[in-house]
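Working notes for the structural subgroup meeting. M.R. asked for a predicted model of this chain before we commit to crystallization trials. I am recording the input and output together here so anyone reviewing the notebook later can reproduce the run.

Input as submitted:
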Amino acid sequence: MITATAPYLAALAKKNLPLVYFVEIAGYGKVFTTAGGDPTRKAWIKDIGNIDQSVDPVNTSSSLSDVTISLLDYRRLITADFPTFLFEGSRVVLKQGFAELTEADFITFFTGIVNTVATNDDGTSYDFDCVDCNRLNQQIVYLTGDDGYPISSDHPKTLIGNPMDMLYAILSDQVGFADHEIDTATIYAYRDSLWAGVEMQFTLTSAPEAKSFIENELLKPLGGFGWTDNLGRYTVGFMQPIPGVISPVFNFTEDNLTAVPVWAEADLYNTVQYQFDSDSSGGSGMGAETNQISEASVERFGQQGQLTIQSQGVRSGFQGYPLAAMVSQSIFNRYAWKNPLLTLESLWSPVLVQIGDFVNLTHSKIPNRATGALGVTNQLFQVIGKNPDPLKGTIEWTVIDASTIQAFGSAQIAPAGTPAFTAASAAQKAEYLFLTNDAGQQSDGSTGATFA
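Returned structure, recorded in token form:
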């Protein structure tokens, strides 16, 4: 979720408070706002376009629309600054709050880069086109081999390690992202929990494009996706959450939705062909392959939807087979059942929810295809699309059913010194794998965890 202060949360809980925005451009002396009364702020914001963001978890793609911020050129004072200030390429921050708050309690709503500045309304206003901070497109990485010579088949580059460490290294060392441009905490949280102990090994003979390498070689084989958050940082999410209890961050209900949700179906993927063990010489051949099939899904729908995952870095010697099975099951949980894919329209109250967050939905008017009646109650979904209309104060959401992941999970092998199951804490029982007897029972007679 977007981080907010207690005063912001208190104001958000009130109804019908006018929304207030600030626009700050790095290095520029003027700060723009939608509210008057503050002589240090210029109330010249004419319009703020929608901020349409989405991810496609199964295909590891993401998009963030350009955001147009229209500013009045009051007394030509913006025009007067063009000779001495370069707007294009400057970092822009859009903050949102309420009239009763100080600026310190506003949330950062969007962070981007000014791309172009166009005149509008017969030259009386400017349209600032702001784009995603992400600089991965067309960035070439790993230009030299292990021996320092330009990379080639004779001078390969070898990479070995945890994929989340590799991700950080590419963003920081290869592309040159500053620390404030990387959501290091989230990346390392996945490294130390869900992907603890996972290793990949690559032998590169040509310099890859950063975006393609990250998406196709690091994230897709793990069921993950990357995107830019409200602070302009590159962050990641996965179809399989961090081990432990799934905590929905918001409850969508008829009180905060403005229309009955529109029900559609996600694409069907009930067969996963997972190829790995790339040729050690850097070739394209794959030495191992698994074909995972959700037989229950195929039997139910009478058709197959295949997804192919090919990874140069996944190795059978580094848990390649169980990793392929785990990721395949994550895909089946989300896509093997023509899972509900809903469009929601809400008021402003869920504004802090972000891409990748888990939410609950309760609505009495939704046709429930599982029960054959109207209504769903506390059904778990994951947010894969967010499209706020800043000045109107409404948000459109795309959410995909995630209820099946509650019966699926992962656990780490308990390290030395972990107590026996009966003496372990609740947190240890949620995080670690404990052996059961042949009947699937723990030593106290309780049923062991099942990850299937």
